[in-house]
Automatic annotation (TrEMBL):
InterPro entries: Acyl_CoA_acyltransferase (IPR016181), GNAT_dom (IPR000182), YpeA/RimI_acetyltransf (IPR050680). It comes from Paenibacillus lignilyticus. Keywords: Acyltransferase, Transferase. This is GNAT family N-acetyltransferase. Residues 1-186 form the N-acetyltransferase domain.
């Protein structure tokens, strides 16, 4: 099992994982009305630099040439700028002209935006491996803290993050869901 920065060509394996990880946030980011449209729009963004889900913000875990999992992670300092392409797309859609994107990441921290492991690879420690890779990248870039959010009902992920050293520090409401905001010193 290796971890590496994703490539554009990884989109067919990364996008389903991304959709699974972000759930309804995919519709808020893209303005899509169904999963197929959301996947198409996220694929377009993934293949372009300069946005939150760009391949250059994705770390993948790879086993035997297959993507086993992925984490989207970036500087909280850049969060507003990374959301601008999404806002431009949203504002060009009828009825979405006044859309806003809730800022999840804060300045001074490295933000783990989305984490997912392919179903056939679950239970093998891949989520922990991906978090460690993102935290290592955070430290290399000079960050002292990593942060993430988790839906309040997702107890399994919440327990994983607690066990990995993350502590709850706030609550966020995004769309119709409540999220626990968690931080960790790296």
């Amino acid at each position: 099992m290796i971890t590496r920065i994703a490539a554009r060509d990884d989109a067919p394996e990364v996008i389903p994982l991304l959709l699974e990880a972000i759930g309804s946030i995919a519709y808020l980011l893209t303005g899509a009305s169904d999963e197929i449209e959301a996947a198409e729009l996220l694929t377009t963004f993934y293949k372009q630099p300069g946005n939150r889900v760009s391949f250059d913000n994705v770390i993948v875990a790879e086993q035997e040439g297959r993507i086993a999992g992925m984490v989207v992670a970036y500087s909280g300092n850049d969060a507003g700028q990374l959301d601008e392409p999404f806002l431009a797309k949203l504002h060009g859609r009828p009825g979405k002209e006044n859309s806003v994107i809730v800022r999840e990441a804060r300045d001074g921290e490295f933000y783990l935006d989305a984490l997912a492991v392919d179903e056939q690879y679950r239970g093998q420690g891949i989520a922990k491996l991906l978090m460690a890779a993102a935290e290592q990248r955070a430290a290399q870039l000079g960050f002292e803290r990593a942060a993430l959010i988790v839906e309040t009902y997702n107890e399994r992920a919440y327990r994983l993050y607690l066990a990995s050293g993350y502590e709850e520090d706030d609550m966020l409401r995004i769309g119709d869901s409540d999220y626990r905001r968690m931080v960790k010193r790296v």
